[in-house]
Amino acid sequence: MDWGMKNRLSRLMPGGKCFFMPIDHGYFQGPTTGLEKPGDTVAPLMEYVDAIFCTRGVLRSAIDPVKSKPIVLRVSGCTSMAGKDLANEELTTSIDDIIRLNVQSVGVSVFVGSDYEKETLKNLSTLVNECEKYGIPVMAVTAVGKEIEKREARYLALACRIAAELGAKVVKTYWCDKDFDKVVNGCPVPVIMAGGPKCKNEVEVFEFVHDGMKRGAVGINLGRNVWQCPKPVPMAKALRAIIHNNASVKEAKDIYSVTV
Prior knowledge:
There is one protein chain. This protein has a single domain (about 5-260), classed as Alpha-Beta Barrel (TIM Barrel). The protein is about 40% helix and about 15% strand. It has helices spanning about 5-10, 25-30, 40, 55-60, 95-100, 115-130, 155-165, 180-185, 200-215, 225, 230-245, 250-260; strands spanning about 20, 50-55, 70-75, 75, 90, 105-110, 140, 170-175, 190-195, 220. Strands 1-2-3-6-7-8-9-10 form an eight-stranded parallel β-barrel, surrounded by six helices. The protein has a two-stranded antiparallel ribbon with strand order 4-5. Helix 9 packs parallel to helix 11. The radius of gyration is 17 Å and the shape is globular.
């Protein structure tokens, strides 16, 4: 692996672990509760996360270039909740703009098993081909669109392995309560956990994150379960403790409870 690629990955995953915070939801669902003003949402949470996952539009308009953490740039899209199929994505950002923005990584969704499986896997391959030239790691997002029932180990393992085989350096996928270790062990690159729908309470979040880390994930990419939480800063502190300090669920709950 080239120096530039190693350097970018080490900044994204200090000590081999990571807490990414996505604020890219608007690219397909427009104004999202808690992200009406993404810059304001991110500001108090920035010190607790390792990277921000966002689009170039939000990056340029809402993120301070001087005080920013590393950026994972969302570079796939062209669909919306109002359309027929969220899987019908295309690449949205040129390699020139990726380099111009000086981001540490880029992220693209793949929809394995959908009507647009080939097209989204081709998007990933095209992006890897371009980004490898410049030492920029690509994160594949194993999206499932509206088909929540696909969040089971056999499907997730298939999607993660295919993404890694096509050159993704990191894979973002969903945690599942059964055989998640098989998902991780079958993927030859680091796996990070997506948040998915907002959980019922903070303990539910701590439990799945802690379990996933024990089963081999290297971190999380959680958005709604952080910035839609009643206490987003304490939530971010507690999650960081699980990721980087091996905190237990009880310890995370205590951090959340006592933090103002």
